[in-house]
Write a structure and sequence with these properties.
about 180 residues; alpha+beta; Threonyl-tRNA Synthetase, Chain A, domain 2; four-stranded antiparallel sheet; two-stranded antiparallel ribbon; 6 strands; about 20% strand
Length: about 180
């Protein structure tokens, strides 16, 4: 049996493309999109809320990063994730986050993960006073970009619930993505 290739939420891709259009303009996005005529999600006015193959999005993302960001630091991806997550916490997650605590966020990490990625699961491996370690299980060696997205999203969510100045870092240890957060 062939394992299904991981996908990313179409809604997350749509939000990312909206950010890129606002930041770089339609012409800038169009220049990169023209390099990938095979990807309908770049040509349509509204990307569906289904799933987009992660490999396709990462290929496009690298082209955007090379043109407008810094591939070595994933600067554009970090900025884009912070902006799209800030928008999500003020709209989609606003009611829940209005009274949430960091501990309640930790209780919901699986939900947050499942609306963005369809491979693996995100769970809490360790909890401590004002710190936690999250791990992705069931997805060996996920791309570095996934770790960057998760770490930046966690920082935005923690900041939104008043957790001071959160510090969140990601790394792959023995093939497993780990996200360490402190606040």
């Amino acid at each position: 049996m062939t394992e299904k290739a991981p996908s990313i939420s179409g809604r997350l891709v749509r939000s990312s493309l909206r950010y890129l259009r606002e930041r770089e303009g339609a012409a800038g996005v169009g220049t990169v999109a023209a390099l990938f005529p095979q990807y309908a999600f770049l040509a349509s006015a509204r990307t569906g809320d289904g799933w987009i193959p992660l490999a396709a999005w990462l290929e496009v993302l690298l082209a955007f990063e090379q043109r407008f960001g810094d591939p070595d630091t994933m600067r554009l991806l970090r900025e884009m994730t912070r902006a799209t997550m800030a928008a999500a916490v003020s709209t989609v997650w606003g009611t829940f986050l209005a009274s949430a605590t960091p501990e309640q966020l930790l209780d919901r990490v699986g939900t947050f993960w499942s609306v963005s990625f369809d491979a693996g699961t995100l769970s809490v491996a360790e909890r401590g006073p004002r710190r936690a370690k999250l791990v992705v299980e069931g997805w060996a060696d996920p791309p570095a970009e996934v770790g960057t997205i998760v770490a930046e999203a966690c920082a935005v969510f923690l900041a939104r619930v008043g957790a001071g100045s959160p510090r969140v870092v990601d790394k792959v240890v023995n093939g497993r993505l780990e996200i360490d957060g402190a606040w």
